[in-house]
Design brief:
The protein is mostly helical. The protein has a single domain (about 1-490), classed as Up-down Bundle (Amino acid/polyamine transporter I), CATH 1.20.1740. It has 22 helices and four strands. Strands 1-2 form a two-stranded antiparallel ribbon. Strands 3-4 form a two-stranded antiparallel ribbon. α1 packs antiparallel against α12 and α8 (about 135-160) packs parallel to α15 (about 305-320). The two termini are about 40 Å apart.
Length: about 500
């Protein structure tokens, strides 16, 4: 209770300090918000600066993250497609070992990781992509989502292989550990330390999970009419307080919440999307035609084909988080002695969140024609699309979005806590400080514009991927050997299938 009390005091302190900058007329002339927005935009300009390749401007960081998705997919023999059946059996518990080290089941680890990816990246992110790049951005999101499965497999396999199991049974895992340990085993001790600490430092700002709060408030304001600075700050404070209650309980508390919340909210959203799609089944071929033609022949305002690919790439990375290393912290806690098996479980994430859910969202938006309506640039486009068919659904979507946002934030509370523990220290005092900062940082999320929060999250995500991708390239041959060993033992019966 003492920790929770200090967290709430921190939340109130942020509100008090920030509200001092409000202009007398109540408009968002808040000096705190304006200064932060300037800094975020400058960061975005730096991260997404372009290089000229054969006369075409390409954002270097996007190309850097796309390359390993393609290269590793080929290198691992299209494991993203071939291992889906095995992954399904593992998730069902057909190879579960109750005595294996770990804190949660492999299904719970998947649910926790999915709660950090299935959500606003699929609902709001698709709308943002279509608003910026037209319906064609969806096609590139799907293609990149399929390729992202391999990258997610590779990093989560490493996450389990090089995790640290403490005496009390708790787990410490993630890129900070496999970069350091994995490269040290290869004799690259200094390189391992450099990449691990570079990752930790670049990933530390990810405690700023403002995009979730922002889009949740955007949808809530759309259905309730609440749209003021006071309402935004109040919403942020309530959201932060609820988050504090869960993350103080640690990974077991988080896993218990997400393993129940994620399937429920996915079911609600998918059923609604299917209702719209099946109710307009005759228009689906035309919708796919619009998506494909727009991808190949986009409007000049979107930057041409390359511009649409970049937009799709940005939103697919935010949706799947492949290459960021974040999900490896949840998967590292899974009960298993087989790192490859958890990697196979992890590859289901981009398929579910980016290929399936994003495609459904895009079809609803295109079928209803909402993307042609002026004034929609974020989650409100998705809401309007559903609302045009199911008049009352925006209210249901508001509830679902709140659950999506909440589950994503508490998952990132766990991830950011592990990063903080590595960089700052894991003492009780240190972790209490982290929880105060993490929750207090959520409060102003609803006040920023959607462009600002997505610029912030995109910039942080792409930066933290750089050391992680370098390490995965170096350790790829090791992963390939482990995959061959695991598949051979499955075929020989050495790894026995059990009843779920």
């Amino acid at each position: 209770m003492g920790t929770l009390k200090r967290v709430f005091i921190g939340i109130l302190a942020v509100m008090a300090a920030s509200s001092a900058g409000f202009a007398q007329d109540g408009e968002s002339d808040n000096i705190f918000i304006k200064a932060a927005t300037d800094v975020i935009n400058a960061l975005g300009d730096f991260v997404f600066s372009t290089i000229n390749v054969f006369g075409t401007d390409i954002e270097w960081v996007v190309a850097f993250l796309a390359a390993p998705m393609i290269i590793l997919t080929v290198y691992f023999g299209f494991i993203n497609l071939k291992s889906f059946g095995i992954a399904y059996k593992i998730v069902r518990g057909r190879y579960h070992d109750e005595n294996a080290p770990g804190e949660v089941t492999q299904f719970q680890a998947l649910a926790t990781a999915l709660s950090g990816t299935v959500g606003l990246g699929n609902i709001a992110g698709v709308a943002v992509a279509i608003a910026k790049g037209g319906p064609g951005a969806t096609l590139w999101m799907i293609i990149i989502g399929l390729l992202a499965m391999t990258l997610k497999f590779a990093e989560c396999t490493l996450g389990v292989k090089y995790r640290t199991v403490r005496e009390d049974g708790t787990i410490a895992g993630g890129p900070m550990y496999y970069l350091q340990k994995g490269l040290t085993e290869k004799g690259w001790t200094k390189a391992g330390l450099f990449l691990a600490w570079t990752y930790g430092i670049l990933a530390l700002p990810t405690f700023l999970q403002v995009a979730q709060v922002n889009q949740a408030y955007s949808q809530l304001s759309a259905v309730t009419g609440l749209n003021s600075d006071f309402a935004a700050w109040t919403f942020g404070a309530i959201f932060a307080g609820l988050t504090a209650v869960v993350i103080i309980g640690g990974i077991r508390s988080i896993a218990n919440v997400t393993s129940k919340l994620v399937p429920l909210m996915c079911l609600i959203y998918v059923l609604a999307a299917l209702f719209v799609i099946l109710g307009n089944i005759g228009e689906v071929p035309a919708a796919f035609g619009t998506i494909i033609s727009s991808a190949m022949n986009p409007d000049a305002a979107t930057g041409g084909v390359l511009g649409v690919i970049v937009i799709g790439m940005q939103r697919a990375v935010y949706s799947s988080e492949a290459g960021l290393g974040s999900a490896t912290m949840a998967h590292a806690a899974a009960k298993t002695n087989e790192p490859v098996s958890e990697g196979m479980v992890a590859l289901m994430e981009p398929f579910i969140d980016t290929v399936v859910v994003c495609t459904m969202t895009a079809l609803v938006i295109v079928i209803t024609g909402t993307y042609t309506v002026e004034g929609y640039s974020d989650i409100q486009m998705t809401s309007a699309a559903f609302g045009s068919i199911i008049s009352w659904f925006p209210i249901v979507l508001a509830v679902a979005v709140l659950m999506f946002a909440f589950s994503t934030v508490i998952s990132w509370g766990y991830y950011a806590g592990k990063i903080w523990e590595f960089v700052i220290g894991g003492s009780d005092k240190s972790m209490t400080t982290f929880k105060i900062i993490f929750c207090a940082a959520l409060v102003p999320g609803a006040v920023f514009t959607s462009d600002t929060v997505f610029t912030l999250m995109d910039s942080m995500f792409f930066l933290m991927a750089i050391p992680n991708i370098i390490g995965i390239y170096i350790l790829a041959p090791e992963i390939k050997r482990d995959v061959a060993s695991y598949i051979a033992r499955l075929k020989s019966g050495e790894i026995k299938e059990t009843k779920a």
